[in-house]
Design brief:
3-stranded antiparallel β-sheet; binds zinc ion; mainly beta; 34% strand; 102 residues
Length: 102
């Protein structure tokens, strides 16, 4: 089962390689841009395996808002939360849930 969910924007194909995954810390979906950069220019290297995704560099969401900041490394389908996360999974490494099971 896949942990990364590819967003197909068939309407205009302007955004390619955009994936979503469920963050177990935020209980929310985070976007990962692997081909077309995000609005602020971010783009990640992705191993192409939606079942055991690895991306680099680290994923940092809501950098300027500590109350909802989420900072992690994703490797082999596991997500390692760093100490500056807002949620209580900080400093822990957990498996990313399957997209279809959430
Ligand atoms: Zn998160």
């Amino acid at each position: 089962m896949s942990k990364f969910h590819l967003i197909n924007d068939s309407s205009d194909n302007k955004v390619q390689g955009l994936y979503l995954f469920h963050c177990p810390g935020c209980r929310n979906a985070h976007p990962v841009h692997t081909i077309t950069p995000s609005a602020n220019g971010s783009k990640w290297d992705f191993n192409g395996d939606v079942d055991k995704p690895t991306i680099s560099p680290s994923l940092l969401c809501n950098k300027h808002w500590p109350e909802c900041r989420c900072h992690s490394f994703i490797k082999d389908g596991m997500i390692q939360f760093l100490s500056d996360c807002w949620h209580n999974l900080k400093n822990q490494t957990v498996e990313i849930p399957d997209w279809d099971e959430v």
